[in-house]
Write a structure and sequence with these properties.
6 helices; 17% strand; globular; alpha/beta; 168 residues; Rossmann fold
Length: 168
Amino acid sequence: MRFIIINGPMGVGKTAVGGYIADTHSGTAFIDGDWCLDIHPFVGNTETKRMAVDNILHMADNYRKCSVCNMIVLSWTIDDRTIMQELTDGILAVGLEPVNVTLICGREALTDRWRNDRICKWRSDDWLQVSIKSLDLFCSLGNCIDTTGLSVSEVAEQVMNGCYRLYP
């Protein structure tokens, strides 16, 4: 069973694409990594990220055991290579096939998406600057799809058609 990890900076469209894939592919479980790290106020340190990975892996194993589930999609901002490796190793350990794609876009597109997001309550200018500063890091991760000018369905189609690499 495939476990698709949709990574990228905050506001790039990971949740929209992951939700779209789940809505259009029967039997797909959707996990938003932020749900697995929902501490108030937010604390994004190594301890809480590892806790989130553990939560994700427990969910993944339960979905793997479910007869009506045939694919899992995770959307999460993973800017730490160690955390990504722990997640990937854990996915392999429970017998799933991890695939990874990183969504990126231009600064202007990211800013427009950020400012037009009426759902996420923490879309502040400070967090926008953090996200913009992270673009270079995410561009360096490989397996990138530049979502600038693409619709959610077009990005989802690229994800599903193999614009990513399989982990060994």
